[in-house]
Amino acid sequence: MGKHGKSWKVPAAEALRAKPDIEVADFDASATPGFAGDKKSGNELLVERGEHLAELQERLYAAGRSGDHRSVLLVLQGMDTAGKGGIVKHVIGAVDPQGIDHTSFGVPSEEEKKHNYLWRIRNALPRGGQIGVFDRSHYEDVLVVRVHNLVPESVWEKRYDEINRFESKLVESGTTIVKVAMFVSLEEQKERLAERLDRPDKYWKYNPADIDERKRWPDYQEAYQAVLDKTSTDVAPWYVVPCDRKWFSRLAVTELLIDALERLQLGWPPADFDVEAEKKRLAKA
Ligand code: AMP
Ligand code: MG
């Protein structure tokens, strides 16, 4: 067992997997489930595990280049300031960008509005060998859409089953889905929004509407609760990550990706040429 074996008392994939009885309203966003270390050891471990993640990702990419159709899809969902962008920068940033297919989903464009809500999702799915990263996702269509009544209840209530069927087909076709619900506390969100207002280099992240969304916190908690209750399936479970401590959420998502990639049991593609013969040819070339 590596160094990480000492710091994780329970493997991240086990400690963070959404339990059937999870209560979003009681969730402790400052906890570090499964992890025994502190910030310093967490950050040290992140470097080491980030290197391991990079190697696994390179194996996936190499496999894809050799015709392997399998892929991984990381779905990041969370309230503003939960740290979705930080995960992309610090966790995904540790791997080769050639193998990353990143998409962020905002308010649907005019074109997107003409189609079913899964249309833009299907268009953004990763090809074989790629890690797709969704910053927000089809879950917005049962989160913000539900909280703001953007479609009638009769429409959004059917989406949970539709999403389960969609994801189940995706898994069958060779995509491992890693769904991460990132939870920040209301207090920590206030501090992070205050920082955005204090720092000119963070104004670009600030959106006055985020303050209005804070008033709807209980509605969002209810909507997240429904998502976890209805869409955490055996083939595509949710992982629930406390995000008040950025070092922990970054380490946690790194471990979840490592777990997903290790389950693919990726080797290196064998040579499709005669290695010894090529060495001889090269020596003479
Ligand atoms: P940000 O991620 O901070 O750039 O914000 C993107 C915004 O787009 C958020 O306020 C989301 O709630 C919103 N958004 C994403 N998907 C949808 C959707 N399907 N319908 C309505 N709003 C959405
Ligand atoms: Mg925002």
Automatic annotation (TrEMBL):
* Residue stretches making up the Polyphosphate kinase-2-related domain: 39-263
> Would the keyword Lyase turn up in this protein's UniProt record?
no
- A Pfam family matched in the record: PPK2
Record-linked InterPro entries: P-loop_NTPase, Polyphosphate_phosphotransfera, PPK2-rel_1, PPK2-related
Q: Which GO terms describe its molecular function?
A: polyphosphate kinase activity
Is the keyword Kinase in the record? yes
Q: What is the protein named?
A: Polyphosphate kinase 2 family protein
